[in-house]
């Protein structure tokens, strides 16, 4: 059964807008869990624009479901991860100028450094994921550095879906989805776990959820946006229902 990891960064974004103590990301994690989330994702950025170190500490101690820590492969972040020991650490590219992560990690350009980072995390007992574009060469590089999970960047697919009028059968959308499908097949052939995420929402998620062998989807902004109107527990419940429906139709 496909799993849902809920990214709660933007709960912290709202809190940091006023530099106060609410809303609390830990409370958000509990609500997401009660709505059916299988995991919680947080991105501890170098500039600490939303999630703070104290949030990571509290969530590792109190979350009752898997904690996925997104992070740049820097010495600072590796040290934090090895101390906190989340169940999974996902290596992502990071730029202070970006609003959100804008592309996949270029493993080919830094294999030696990333191999050392993955080994350091593995020595601490942490499963390592890499966030990459749906490019077979990057998938193969991920296997070479020892990653156990590949999360494919679904942004290009999501943007095509939106710009093509939410027409899942348009050639542009089908083409982007096929890239994800083919990269996912390579991931599985190389013995890694096939996850996906970025810009997925209530309208575009089901074609991705129907892909063979996909294990986890990580979704944040769309769920937090829906939660403004229906509450976080219900927003997660609605997304889980869409994932279940998609997989039932694919059988």
TrEMBL record:
Catalytic activity: 3-amino-2-oxopropyl phosphate + 1-deoxy-D-xylulose 5-phosphate = pyridoxine 5'-phosphate + phosphate + 2 H2O + H(+)
Record's protein name: Pyridoxine 5'-phosphate synthase
Annotated binding of 3-amino-2-oxopropyl phosphate, by residue: 7, 18, 199, 220-221
Subcellular localization(s) per the UniProt record: Cytoplasm
Catalytic center residues: 43 (proton acceptor), 70 (proton acceptor), 198 (proton donor)
Any Pfam family: PdxJ
Positions of 1-deoxy-D-xylulose 5-phosphate binding: 9-10, 45, 50, 100
Organism the protein comes from: Accumulibacter regalis
Enzyme Commission code(s) on record: 2.6.99.2
Keywords: Cytoplasm, Pyridoxine biosynthesis, Transferase
Domain of life where this protein originates: Bacteria
Family note: Belongs to the PNP synthase family.
One GO biological process term: pyridoxine biosynthetic process
GO CC, alphabetical: cytosol
Pathway(s): Cofactor biosynthesis; pyridoxine 5'-phosphate biosynthesis; pyridoxine 5'-phosphate from D-erythrose 4-phosphate: step 5/5
């Amino acid at each position: 059964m496909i799993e849902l990891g809920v990214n709660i960064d933007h709960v912290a974004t709202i809190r940091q807008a006023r530099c106060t103590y609410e809303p609390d990301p830990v409370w958000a994690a509990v609500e997401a869990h009660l709505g059916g989330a299988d995991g919680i994702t947080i991105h501890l950025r170098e500039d600490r624009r939303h999630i703070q170190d104290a949030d990571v500490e509290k969530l590792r101690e109190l979350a009752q479901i898997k904690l996925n820590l997104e992070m740049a492969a820097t010495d600072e972040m590796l040290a934090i991860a090895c101390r906190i020991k989340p169940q999974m650490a996902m290596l992502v590219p990071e730029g202070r100028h970006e609003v959100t992560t804008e592309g996949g990690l270029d493993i080919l350009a830094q294999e030696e450094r990333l191999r050392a980072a993955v080994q350091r995390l593995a020595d601490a007992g942490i499963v390592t994921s890499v966030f990459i574009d749906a490019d077979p060469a990057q998938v193969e590089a991920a296997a070479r550095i020892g990653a156990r999970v590949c999360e494919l960047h679904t942004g290009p697919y999501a943007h095509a879906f939106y710009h093509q009028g939410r027409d899942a059968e348009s050639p542009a959308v089908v083409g982007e989805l096929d890239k994800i499908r083919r990269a996912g097949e390579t991931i599985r052939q190389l013995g890694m776990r096939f996850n996906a995420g970025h810009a997925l929402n209530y309208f575009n998620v089901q074609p991705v959820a129907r892909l063979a062998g996909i294990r986890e989807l990580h979704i944040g902004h769309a769920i937090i946006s829906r939660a403004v109107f229906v509450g976080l527990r219900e927003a997660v419940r609605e997304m889980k229902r869409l994932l279940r429906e998609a997989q039932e139709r694919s059988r």
